[in-house]
Amino acid sequence: MRELFDFAAEALANFVSSEGEDFHLPPGRQRELGFTFSFPVRQLSIASATLIKWTKGFSIEDAVKLNPFAVSHVNDTIGTLAGGRYYHPDVIAAVILGTGTNAAYVERAHAIPKWHGLLPKSGEMVINTEWGNFRASHLPLTEYDQAPDVESLNPGEQIFEKIISGMYLGEIVRRVLCRMAEEAAFFGDTVPPKLKIPFVLRYSFRLDELILMKHLLNEAIASHSIIPSYMDKTDIEYFFENKNGWKKLGRDTVKEGDNQRSVIALDGGLFEHYTKFRECMESTLKELLGDASDSVVIEHSNDGSGIGAALLAASHSQYLKVEES
Ligand code: BGC
To answer: What is its EC number (predicted)?
Structure first.
């Protein structure tokens, strides 16, 4: 853990030292840093957070308390939401579809039973859903999904993330390929020994190659009826927590004269490189929301989380300045 933060600090020091000689901070001002973390955190204040648990195959003993050096410390979905909102005031949710998956959205503060503090002036708060940890008996889990979960460092957790996200796709593909090699001599008489190494595909391929491979395999498998093709629509439906999420926000129907747009800021390699996934998402939205889906816009937010965290740091320090004066 120390090495990771030493590395971040060094990169930051290099960046600062590369600034032009004519850059000077106003007297009494410090630099303001935004920091996003791609793991579930308990937000103690904007500048302080503690790690709740590791996901995506990480397991590091050291307790992580993020507060020594940045003005804003937020989960990556919150950063993406803030960055997205800066560019489009209609952004109501942020979704990450990459190595892991998660979503954050803007909720009416009075509708949050867990919140017992003062209600914010805006009447709104952001919720980090940690939907990667979603599981339900309706999730179509195949043996190829179950095995990596059982063998993972966090069995029974992050099930939704484990069946769709970039971190696990390669492993799912490897297991399907292995079975095809064993039962249908897919690669000839012998199973390639490399294919037996867990997570080998994760390390040897780029995410977009893996995505393509899983897609091709799904098609091959579906047409040969070896195992059912389980990816695509069913997964996508869960992304939007069914229609209920939209109902909750009052955005599931089109009201007369209502031209409100609901923009979703989306980041991550899975979304960026897997066109079919994106198409499925759009058609499922249409199916779930009907005409109301016309007002839903998905915007790709490239590295939006870092920018969002920096913007949060900047706006927080402006707020402090106003409070002081
Ligand atoms: C983490 C989330 C994070 C997501 C996307 C998940 O594994 O639990 O906190 O937002 O990955 O990076």
So the answer is: 2.7.1.-
pLDDT score for 321: 75
Mutate to test the pocket of ligand 1, among 51, 59, 76 (most ligand atoms within 8 A of CB): 76
Could you tell me which of 65, 67, 84 has the C-alpha nearest to residue 76?
Answer: 84
Nearest residue to 309 via CA among 121, 70, 128, 15? 70
Ranges of residues in the chain with a pLDDT under 50 are 204, 224-243
In this structure, the residue with its CA closest to atom 6 of ligand 1 is 100
Residue whose entry in the numeric block shows the structure tokens 């199916």? 287
Q: Is 64 helix (H, G, I), strand (E, B) or coil?
A: coil
DSSP string covering 164-228:
HSHHHHHHHHHHHHHHHHHHH-TTSSS--GGGGSTTHHHHHS-HHHHHHHHHHHHHHHHHHTSS-
According to DSSP, the residues that pair with 299 across neighbouring strands are 265
**Residue 236: predicted pLDDT:** 36
188 CB-near residues (< 8 Å, 6+ apart)? none
Tell me what pLDDT residue 221 has.
Answer: 56
Q: What is the pLDDT of residue 232?
A: 40
Residue 97: the pLDDT is 92
